[in-house]
Specification:
The protein is of the alpha+beta class. It is about 45% helix and about 10% strand. InterPro entries: Kinase-like_dom_sf, Prot_kinase_dom.
């Protein structure tokens, strides 16, 4: 905190120089942009720093999904992050009209009738927490998520939680012994929500500009949850919900707004819960899940804690699919499951175990890194054709984040005096790639 106070103090002195006319206007504009960016980094990366006065309080609905919007939401969410903030409890019998979101996703439920019509149930399985005697941890995390994502309205009746990549939470149910339900409200004047996976499999063509804007919004959602101290642990196209306008509102098919859901395994950084390896052993070892996991978790028997950098790896795989606009997995109607789409990229077990890893005693530990190697090759070959080399570099950086070969290693050295950066590398890294995405020129 002392370092942050010194940083803010330095900015205050610089503003004083500006007020006294000691800095030329042109130079002052450049410095002002840098100072505001520095202040934004400090606010986003500091979990204990709150805004006393919320900017644009009466014009929240008019804000575009930019960094001001994200900062505002994070400030409001942190204000709610207190045990005294009320939580709406919902009875299970109100969910009798709920059904699986789609045939590929049984973790998200959609309510199509009743008081919560149009809402989405996000189910958090707690069986493994019960087995470890850590149910108090998951209860605390579930309630905390319900608070910080709680729907809230300003004086004009505008919902102030629905434009930053996370849907507003209208309540929770914790009455079932094996799971908790978070209930998220989707806009009433839009089409029925779908997942990014479903849209990728339909293969509707979307402009490069739409894909770029979609990527910016998705990265912004990751920035928000990481700024709030949440490790998602399951970012993939199946956990990204799209909200699209009705045909009356937009006759042309639009890509829609992305929202992160599937908080089934999510936790706060301060919480230590079920190790990822145990979760995988419990039945989530399908390749269409593990491909989005950082290979370090799959290449060892050790129970490594899941970190925000692992979410960034997952984001990188999603950005790759958005760039080429193809799902890496196809739906098998006979077995009703996802499987590798070898027409896009073959990373099936057979390819490796019958090929380069045949007879290798440590093949199970090497395989995850071979898959990532092929993802990197695919990204370097295919992405420049669609969204260009700059977007390709962003994806590669996400897939190698936190390693010596990544740009982030050099950035850490260059910004070693930036306290906010050292406090939360992932927040600063996502901010960095957001800047690059916003500066991309597709012409």
């Amino acid at each position: 905190m002392k370092h942050r106070q010194r940083s803010i103090g330095r900015m205050r002195n610089k503003f004083a120089f500006l007020a006294l006319g000691c800095i030329q206007i042109e130079d002052a504009m450049n410095r002002l942009k840098h100072w505001l960016s520095e202040l934004h980094d400090i606010l986003m990366a500091s979990p204990k720093l709150h805004l006393r006065i919320l900017p644009f309080q009466n014009n929240i609905k008019k804000l575009s999904p930019n960094e001001d919007d994200s900062l505002l939401f994070v400030a409001i969410a942190r204000r709610r992050d207190h045990p005294s903030y009320p939580i709406r409890r919902i009875e299970d019998d109100l969910f009798r009209h709920a059904h699986p979101f789609d045939r590929m996703n049984t973790e998200l439920l959609f309510i199509d009738d009743g008081d919560f019509e149009g809402c989405i149930i996000d189910r958090r399985n707690i069986i493994h927490f019960l087995e470890q005697g850590k149910v108090d941890h998951v209860v605390a995390d579930t309630e905390r998520m319900a608070r910080i994502f709680a729907e809230e309205y300003d004086d004009l009746g505008h919902n102030i939680t629905a434009s930053v990549g996370v849907l507003p939470c209208c309540g929770l149910s914790m009455s079932h012994p094996e799971y908790h339900d978070l209930v998220f409200r989707s806009p009433s004047d839009c089409q029925k929500p779908s997942t990014l996976r479903g849209l990728l499999l339909q293969e509707p063509q979307h402009t490069l500009e739409e894909r770029l804007n979609f990527s910016i919004k998705l990265a912004s959602a990751v920035l928000v949850i990481h700024s709030l101290g949440i490790v998602h642990k399951d970012i993939r196209p199946d956990s990204i919900v799209l909200i699209q306008p009705t045909m009356e509102q937009s006759p042309v098919q639009k890509l829609g707004e992305p929202f992160l859901l599937s908080f089934s395994q999510s936790r706060f950084q301060s919480t230590r819960t079920v190790p990822l390896k145990q979760t995988i052993r419990a039945g989530r070892s399908k390749v269409w899940v593990t491909l989005y996991r950082h290979p370090r978790h799959l290449a060892t028997r050790a129970h490594l804690p899941y970190e925000t950098r692992d979410d960034i790896f997952s984001l990188g795989v999603c950005l790759l699919e958005i760039a080429v606009w193809k799902s890496l997995f196809a739906w098998n109607t006979e077995f009703e499951t996802l499987e590798c789409d070898t027409s896009v990229l073959d990373f099936s077990d057979d390819k490796y175990y019958r090929g380069e890893l045949a007879g290798c005693s440590s093949s199970s530990r090497i395989l995850p890194y071979h898959r990532r190697r092929d993802l990197l090759r695919f990204a370097k070959e295919k992405i420049p054709i669609t969204l260009g080399s700059a977007f390709k570099d962003i994806v590669v950086d996400c897939l190698t984040f936190g390693e010596e070969t990544s740009t982030i290693a050099n950035m850490t050295e260059k910004q070693k005096d930036n306290v906010a950066f050292l406090q939360n590398q992932s927040v600063n890294f996502v901010q960095n790639i957001l800047t690059k995405l916003r500066n991309l020129n597709l012409r």
